[in-house]
Specification:
The complex is a heterodimer of chains A (743) and B (237).
Chain A lengths: L1 E4 L11 H19 L7 E3 L4 H5 L1 E8 L8 E7 L2 E7 L12 H4 L1 H5 L9 E3 L8 E3 L2 H19 L4 E5 L5 H11 L4 E3 L6 H11 L4 E3 L6 E5 L9 H13 L2 E5 L5 H4 L3 E3 L6 H14 L5 H7 E2 L1 H8 L4 H8 L3 H14 L3 E3 L11 H14 L9 E3 L42 H10 L7 E5 L3 H4 L3 H9 L3 E6 L4 H4 L3 E4 L11 E3 L2 E3 L14 H11 L11 H8 L7 H7 L1 E3 L4 H8 L10 E2 L3 H5 L19 E6 L13 H4 L6 E4 L1 H6 L7 E5 L4 E8 L7 E5 L40 E6 L3
Parallel strand pairs in A: 8-9, 8-17, 11-12, 11-15, 12-13, 14-23, 17-18, 18-19, 24-28, 25-27
Antiparallel strand pairs in A: 1-3, 3-4, 4-5, 6-7, 6-19, 10-16, 20-21, 21-22, 24-29, 26-27, 26-29
Chain B lengths: L3 H15 L4 H9 L1 H13 L10 H8 L11 H17 L11 H6 L5 H12 L2 E3 L9 H20 L3 H33 L3 H23 L3 H12 L1
Helix pairs in contact in B: 1-3, 1-8, 1-10, 2-5, 8-9, 9-10, 9-11
The chains are: A alpha/beta (743), B mainly alpha (237).
Bound molecules: iron/sulfur cluster.
Chain lengths: 743, 237
Amino acid sequence: MTTKLRKRSPGKGGMTRRRFMEGSAASVAAGILASRLGGFENLALAKQRADEVSSYLREIPTVCEMCVWRCGLRAKVRDGVVVKLEGNPDHPHSRGKLCPKGNAGIMALYDPDRLKTPMMRVGERGEGTFRKASWDEALDYVAEGMKKIKEKYGPQAMVMSSTHNLAQLQFENLMQAYGTPNYGTQRSLCFNAMVMGFTMTYGTSDVGGDYANTRYIIYNGRNLLDGIANSETQDLIAAIQRGARVVVLDPRFTKTASKAYRWFPVRPGGDLAFFMALNHVILREGWYDVDFVEKHTSGFDILVEELEKCTPRWAEEKCDIPAEQIFEVAREFAEAAPRAFAHPNWRASNTLNSFQTERAIAILNALVGNWKQPGGLLPSGGEGGGLQLGCYAQPPYPRTAAMRLDGVPLKYPLVPLKLGVFQELRDAVLRGKPYPAKGWLIFRQNPLMSLSDRARTLEAFRKLDLIVTIDILPNDTAYYSDVILPESTYLERYDPLSVVGNKVFLRQPVVPPLYDTKSALEIFKLLGERLGLYDFFQYRDEEDYIKTQLKTVRISLDRLKQNGYYEEAVHEAAADREAEMVFQTPGGKIELASKTLEQVGFDAVPKWRELPRPDKGKFYLLTGKVAQMTQSSTQNNQWLSKHIPENTIWIHPRAAAVRGIKDGDMVFVESRIGRIQLKAKVTEGIRPDCVWTTFGYGHRSKGLRTTYARGALSSDIHQSLTDPVSGSQALSQTTVSVYKASV
Amino acid sequence: MLYLTTRIEMLELLITAFSRPREVLAREIAEGSFSTRIVNRIASCCEGSSRCCFPKDLIETIRKLPDEFKEVQEDRKVLTILDAEYLRLFVNDFPSAWVQPYESWYHEGRTMGKAALECLELYQRDGLAPVEGGELPDHLVTQLEYLLFLTLLEKKASSEEDVALYRMTRVKEQHFYERHIMTWFPTCCARVQTYSRVSFYRVMARFLRNFIVLGNRNLHLHRSGFDEGVAHDYKTA
Ligand code: SF4
């Protein structure tokens, strides 16, 4: 922690006029307050003199939580008020810079709509009438409800769900100790296909690109200039400045597309054909890395056979990219290799073909042998890995007595338990089969908005006896809950440590909590203890938990609080191991044809499947990110909302003209399951058969006054369709009609 | 005109009314002692005067406050009603209460804005600081507490005949009224009057509005040339 003390120069004689006046009033303050014991609950005698207090400008290192990238930051705090957030130059994710959301974190702390106290519902569910409760009362109620559900229906009747965050491990600890297998994460709504596509090929999904040395990058639906991943976005810009060529496949002319060397407005779902054709050309022309493929891959012959017919001409009509250009990209990519990579993306094109598309991308990288090569693909591109942290010795978790509700592994045999298939979980709650769910504990997640088909999620909520939300804002899900437990913001609390490679970073409070809120670590402990799970929550408090984590590294918590991070020296032996070609697949090699997939009855190599196209006059409904927002969690932030107060629907001028739609007109966007109203943005930056909007607007909670009823929510019209292999929701398979609202 | 002791007592009542409701408040409202105390305070300040400082119909509605809870038998239930309303109005106003008790919100639409920092500085200059875990520095109740502090200071100065302290305190009060109280209390009170479903808060908001208007007028009526000089010193110190 850097503490800057700016001394005021005293006036002549050592006492300023102001200090004299302060002194005289302050000296009587003690007497006045003492004479009214109990009269003042919010003001007390100051411990420091006024001039001492106001001259402090402290810089406290911590970790951003405005999205999941976890950039290191330094909070500037004056008089107990956070006045500025700046990127921590020592943090590998921020390198001294914060994105717009990171800068606006101050307004997450000072948002007047924040949850300020535990609340319990008093009216009908969804009516939004609550009363204040003490922490004891609210936690006792939740624990009692959870115990009753466990006794009557078994622990599996309790659903628990959480987003990606630092306290998630402890949430999972609570869930496993309680004994339910029913875990809902946002992963199937986001990156299941990528994680599984790369895991089935390389044995790991933790893959990044070596931007510093690359000459050629292919992105498929990844829009790093809007879906900001701070350091990676910085890397991309630096790579472009250095002359790296960037190819972007996206039906929309995104900001990233605007920086690209080639932009292809690919047909949604046709991207699989594009990558199969790239692989075909590279194999046919003999541009692959023969040595690498022989030594480190398996299933080559099966792949060659399958790709035999997948020529650029074959792919052209499927992806709407001219055959000549597909060939050109294949040639350029192979020429640049191994200093080239096709990015794993996060969601690719979001169709029923997503998993196989990710497989085709993984295979393309393998064929050119760019694994662990300068400018190629690198393992451990993301968080985690590296340092092992200390933990408490705990008893084993109880055996779960039931199968999961989301169909993993029966229906989705390969989907990892930690990923799950969230939309299937919701549907099972709704059906009450194979067994009924009775409660749902939701930690910093907003399933009422994030799951496609909001009406269905609301219906599922009606089946439950107990809905509990732990969050910072009164979001839509909180609005429909029975109990709301308010969490402190990331600027007011500790979280478990964040590990990035060989560095450990600390999230710590930069100001005390403004309201009656608690950290997730404390909430889980208090709830766990009430459920009788003492052995699983042995920490006394947050600091005690972090001290235990630090037992395996050589830094004290006090030092860590000052520095914000600790870096462990990388031993040479470990560095050598990193260079080895080790793949955690069944055969120990990169699997061009996957044995695992074959065993469970899926295609061992990517196969083309024609997907339904929109009927005449209809559009693919596409969604994506904007730089100012993180999913549905930041629209109420006043500094961010100012820039994008509502979402619009992008439509091509030709499609708009046919329908008499002008820029700024209100239009209805209608799918098979519903209709929303949005303002039209008529632009050539979108394919004529697609419309696009950003997700996260259309909040129904009246507690969010900045964003309430602004824009509309795509989940109201997105159908729940699922990629059969990875369980990823296939958002871009929803088709819609668009027409003027005022006719 | 409001006597010093009356102002102090009224401020204490207002602080209680706009703080998180407690059981004792619920009981006092239900049995009528809370309204009686207010009515008595009003009566005492206007004793002997033909014109009361507060509107007659306001006094009547204050007198009738217990009627709202006539049907409610238990004090606990009264507390539950008050608590739910307090939450809805001032804390997390699901579904649509629209009353923020922070001055910063009225000027900048956020919490801990410039107004809060200015309040902090004023408190610090008087040797005070917000209690950890208490309300924010520009919360309605924190500002009322500061006003109470200044009024107590004024009373002390007056009883000890300390002219300098008295004048300085009056200047501080004037400054606090001008820079803070009068810039947002009227709007905030109007919102409570509009949005509260419980008449207790509507009536208390009206009472508060009248109280601060009187307080402000009182300070300005007694402003002297000397005060202006002290005020200049205070503001530029
Ligand atoms: S990318 Fe932006 S929002 Fe995300 S952690 Fe970094 S600074 Fe915060």
